[in-house]
From TrEMBL:
Keywords: Carbohydrate metabolism, DNA-binding, Glycosidase, Hydrolase, Polysaccharide degradation. Gene3D superfamilies: Immunoglobulins, YVTN repeat-like/Quinoprotein amine dehydrogenase. Residues 348-464 are annotated as: Disordered. This is DNA-binding beta-propeller fold protein YncE. One of its GO terms (molecular function) is hydrolase activity, acting on glycosyl bonds. It holds the Pfam family fn3. SMART domains: FN3. It comes from Nonomuraea fuscirosea. SUPFAM superfamilies: Fibronectin type III, YWTD domain. The lineage of its organism: Bacteria, Bacillati, Actinomycetota, Actinomycetes, Streptosporangiales. Residues 441-535 form the Fibronectin type-III domain. GO terms for biological process: polysaccharide catabolic process. It comes from the Bacteria. Residues 413-441 have a biased composition (Low complexity). PROSITE patterns: FN3 (PS50853).
Length: 711
């Protein structure tokens, strides 16, 4: 995976390498007798040519490659200096030695469809069909320790920033963390049979449950929070919603394959949920989305391209050509760069966080073949061994900086002009200017995006093309109001919806008003006018006898619907307000509490913590009623064995530790009766004295600042 180490993107030093022998199943070619591989780069696979090439991420140039027989289906797993080739049909895994451009080891893991998870020197081989998990050394492919088996089938496993493997166990609705080959306590994230996927966002696991339309965020301290997703996520086709293996920041894109092409982006830093309907391409042909910066890149196999959508700006998505022909496009993020690879052809692109793009020619003719003979530069089609046609120069339908596609999608045709005017001018003999409408209807507004926020939903959209729009208004599926009430034709193209209920989900339609009437956009995806709350602040616990008085400050955005869940020394999952009294604890001990806030949008994994020390508040009082006879200190709270004696007539200072109920006792001198006994320490011994023999405050149990003895 992608650990998000952007520092490597600043390293341009090359590593010298020489051509060496290769494993029997692979050949090797290099760009010169003294090849150099850039530290900022990636290995890309081409199925038709059976070639894996290394590409410099800063220039897009090929600087080394390995050859294999064409047609083999290999998958490249790369992390730092670990480069592994997985044969999905056989379960064979080979390790590439980048410094030598060779295959160093090959190992048969014996499982078709094998998963390999590699990150930061930690590796696991996972067989989802059998449930077998084997830790490996990615530098040697050697196994480490004994294998572990979990109930099959398993979902795609990922390694977090701390080196733990998170394995979805569909049969139990759980994810299981595995550290150093040993399974830890599972985390419940759904019901048995619900489809689960894990994304490592900024080093922390996020588990998407498609059927329940939830995202469970697991914090660094093990706390578990949840973000409610739009209901449309639950309508994903079999296999569930698509989410990347990892993201370098807090944004997690989630794509729902289906008729709408619903794209949801959650921000685990703020718990905000952003949703839009792509409305372009064949939703069934869309692949797993990736995110770089604020832009989301969705592969479109039907077009061999990328759909690019900026989550910060909203609006209509744009399209970026990758392959010449339709087919699979492998998209991933590595070293702070986004890579899109045409697996069947010779094209690829690499994009930096600012959206700058380098085209990649994986069959660069300047790179020598396995025989070290340069390939022809200008006549590649004359090569009789090539069965595919070299791709034409890259066609960019829309760059990532362009606000609208230059190729003019069919729904954008009205931007080319006013179609009703052209036919009225063509027949010069029968001009009828008075019968022709002075304006044509504008196209519907597009790119409607709904972003949840505390107490509001921010709705952005792209303006209508063609016609003359006078203003835009917003319709919602429930009660509430929009601010402003209308937007001018020249923008800004944004509304804020307020006044809704956090328990509801709202859809929004943007209406374009023109001289001839109204034109409405497609309804947006659902959104809530709230976000999952963060953790409470100022959480404190004040000691009291056998309990604690808890107080805290509500998190930002909390409202009357916000409740709090208390765990630890006491539990309650539906606390209202910002105070709570805990009772029934043992005194003379320390007790810890955890508190989190929740609402209909979810809850944060971060918790507030507090601790209370119920140590006995020892007090000093004098003994009482000691004029008639000696006062006997007892070993327990009854008139039993003697632990000491205070001589008659002496009044001394006693240390009272705590009080306890015991046998009833009546003082013959005063006639007072009590069943309260004081545990005391004195110069004449330690033990118990009835409360009639100690000058304690009268009233209640325990009295005054004293605590009950609970040990």
């Amino acid at each position: 995976m992608l650990r998000g180490d952007r520092a490597t993107a600043l390293i341009a030093a090359a590593v010298a390498a020489i051509l060496v022998a290769v494993a029997a199943w692979l050949g090797v070619g290099v760009s010169s007798a003294n090849p150099k591989l850039a530290d900022v780069g990636a290995w890309l696979w081409t199925k038709a040519r059976g070639k894996i090439v290394h590409v410099n991420g800063l220039s897009g140039e090929v600087d080394g490659y390995l050859n294999d027989k064409a047609g083999r289906q290999l998958r490249v797993v790369q992390d730092g200096g670990d480069v592994l080739l997985v044969d999905d049909t056989t379960g064979y895994v080979s390790r590439v030695e980048p410094s030598q451009l060779s295959v160093a080891e090959t190992r048969d893991f014996g499982a078709a469809g094998l998963q390999l998870a590699v990150s930061g020197g930690t590796g696991y081989a996972v067989d989802p069909a059998s449930g077998k998990i084997q830790q490996i050394n990615p530098a040697t492919l050697d196994t480490v320790g004994a294998a572990l088996t979990l109930p099959a089938p398993l979902g795609a496993a990922r390694i977090d920033g701390g080196g733990r493997l998170w394995v979805p166990v569909t049969a139990r609705g759980e994810v299981v963390p595995v550290a150093e080959g040993t399974a830890a306590a599972p985390v419940k994230v759904g019901e048995p049979g619900e489809e689960l996927s894990v994304t490592i966002a900024g080093g922390l696991p996020v588990v998407v449950n498609s059927r329940a339309a939830t995202a469970t965020v697991i914090g660094s301290d093990g706390g578990v929070g949840q973000i409610t997703l739009p209901k449309g996520v639950s309508q994903a086709a079999r296999g569930g919603a698509l989410a990347p293996a990892a993201t370098e920041g807090s944004l997690v894109p989630i794509l729902t394959p289906g008729d709408s092409g619903l794209l949801v982006v959650i921000d685990t830093a703020s718990n905000a949920v952003l949703s839009t309907k792509l409305g372009t391409g064949d939703p069934a042909a869309l692949g797993t989305p990736q995110v770089l910066g604020s832009k989301v890149y969705v592969p479109d196999q039907a077009a061999g391209s990328l759909i690019v959508w900026d989550s910060a700006d909203g609006g209509r998505p744009t399209t970026l050509r990758v392959a010449q022909d339709p087919g699979p496009v492998d998209v991933f993020v590595k070293d702070g760069l986004l890579w899109a690879n045409d697996e069947n052809g010779d094209k690829a692109i690499v994009i930096d966080p600012e959206g700058r793009k380098h085209d990649v020619d994986k069959d660069d003719s300047d790179v020598p073949g396995p025989t070290n003979t340069p390939k022809p530069k200008q006549t590649p089609r004359s090569d009789p061994t090539r069965t595919d046609t070299p791709p034409q120069p890259d066609h960019v339908e829309t760059t990532t900086r362009a606000p609208v596609p230059p190729t003019r999608e069919p729904t954008r045709e009205p931007t080319t002009g006013q179609p009703t005017r052209t036919p009225t001018r063509t027949p010069s003999s029968t001009p009828t200017p008075t019968s022709t409408p002075t304006q044509s209807a504008p196209a519907p507004p597009g790119g409607v995006t709904a972003r949840s926020g505390p107490g509001k939903v921010t709705v952005t959209f792209s303006p209508s093309a063609g016609g003359k729009v006078e203003r835009y208004t917003l319709k919602s599926s429930g009660d509430g109001r929009s601010v402003p009430q209308s937007v001018d034709a020249d923008g800004p193209f944004r509304f804020e919806f307020t006044g809704g209920s956090c328990s509801g989900e709202y859809t929004f339609t943007v209406v374009a008003h023109w001289q001839g009437g109204e034109v409405e956009s497609e309804p947006s995806a659902g959104a809530k006018p709230c976000v999952a709350p963060g953790s409470p602040t100022g959480f404190a616990a004040k000691a009291r006898n056998r309990g604690a008085e808890l107080t805290w400050n509500a998190p930002e955005g909390a409202d009357d619907a916000t409740t709090y869940e208390l765990t630890g020394a006491a539990t309650n999952d539906a606390i209202k307000g910002t105070t709570f009294t805990v009772e029934g604890l043992k005194n003379n001990q320390k007790h810890s509490f955890k508190l989190k806030a929740r609402n209909a949008a979810g809850e944060s994994p971060d918790v507030a913590t507090a601790e209370v020390d119920l140590a006995y508040p020892k007090q000093q009082y004098k003994n009482a009623s000691n004029d008639d006879t000696n006062t006997i200190i007892r070993t327990g709270p009854s008139a039993g064995d003697k632990a000491g004696t205070i001589p008659q007539g002496q009044y001394i200072t006693l240390t009272v530790i705590c009080q306890v109920k015991g046998a009833s006792y009546t003082d013959s001198s005063t006639g007072k009766t009590s069943d309260i006994w004081n545990r005391i320490e004195s110069q004449y011994g330690n033990g118990y004295l009835n409360d009639t023999l100690v000058a304690t405050p009268d009233g209640g149990f325990p009295e005054g600042p004293l605590f009950e003895c609970t040990d």
